[in-house]
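Structure tokens please, single chain.
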Amino acid sequence: MKTNIKPLILITLISLLVCVIHAVLLYSTHNAYLYTSIAKSLLFLLVPVLYFSFTDKSELKKLFAVNKSKFKLPLVLAFAVLAFILIMFALLKGFIDGGMITAGLANMGISGKNFAFVFIYIIFINAFLEEFFFRGFVFSTLRDKGNKAYAWLYSSALFALYHVSILDGMLSPLFFALIIFALFVAGLIFNFLAQHSGNIFGSLIVHIGANIAINTIGVYYFFNA
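Here you go.
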């Protein structure tokens, strides 16, 4: 398939702008979790929908075409990823500064009053938003337009870099670098699952599994501060 330069440039610019706006909000004085969550929902949902509305609405429908026969691998991987993250945490817990994590959670506006909402939001809504945006809008669209290698690398790199502003201040430089690299690898795995499933549900299932594990770690630090 011939590389299509126009969508490559357009999607790159749009996705970069969305992630930059989100990062600016996180670093602004309006960094209350409710506000940033609403802003992220609007950015990660409306921007891709508007793009598909002006280009090809059928591309949007394909992202939600359910293929039950493709669910087995994502389900197995979801449990494997969940277990892997918790096991690695148990092994490395002694090297992690819990105070930095709790301070980072507080800086994001996460408190006892909204913790239950945040827990549920991250597992289901946040995972969906990120899969729809990074795998549905960025990866799948670029790949289908003939930009396959770029789609794989760019979407994974953007997914990792997008988390920089979220994780900033929570980890030591070494762990921060390791997590960002791990997120790049996770992006590649999510891309594979999206391609395997032919929709965003394969990667979404594994993303939910990972978020359950990450939230469990968050609960540990939140209530043992």
